[in-house]
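Model it.
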Amino acid sequence: MNTAVPPQGCTHLKLRLLDRMLTRHYDRYVAPVGLKNTQYMLLTHVVTLGPIRPSDLARRMQMDASTLSRNLQPLAAQGWLTVGAGADARSRLVSATEAGRAKRAEAQRAWRAAQVALNERLGPARVAALHELLDGCVATLDADPDGPPQP
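Modeled.
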């Protein structure tokens, strides 16, 4: 006999609410550095993975290519990223500049402070459990990104 209580409410709504609250939390720490947390994450990916093709970056970040393109523009305008020629005339590569690496290092200190504050507020055990749950969900969804066929 299954005594598990079925989920109540909309999972998407609950995750969006948590996402907005976490975004505000991290933004409060990263904003004084001159970045939004989405910009920090993008800059971090490019520093870590770059030079990288925009399509590969979008795939790694689970982001739409047009969204990535819009998000790259302000970072390139600030001189933190460059989008240059790739291996052939049709390809491009995104790279971090020295100023971008320095900005990422500055923002990383703020990001760590935000994470410490969140751990203190929620408790390390709850944060670890949340990470484990989220990692499992991502792995499950990533195994079949399109899910079941539509009727």
